[in-house]
Amino acid sequence: MPRSPGVPTPDELEARIAELRADVRRAMASGDRDRARALRAELRRAESAWDDAVLGSGGPAAERPESGERGLLPVREQVHQALTLLGVPAAPKLIGSVYAAFFPGEIPGSRLTSLRRDEERSFRTSPYARPYYLCAALTADLLAPARGLLTVSTWPLEQRIVGPLSPRTDFLTSAVRLAEHAGRGTPPPGVQRLLWRFASNIPGAVTGTVGTVEPSALAEAARAELDVHREPDRRRREAAAARARERLDDAERLFGSRLRSLRGRGRHPAINGETDR
Question: Nearest CA to 145 among 259, 28, 13?
Answer without folding.
Answer: 259
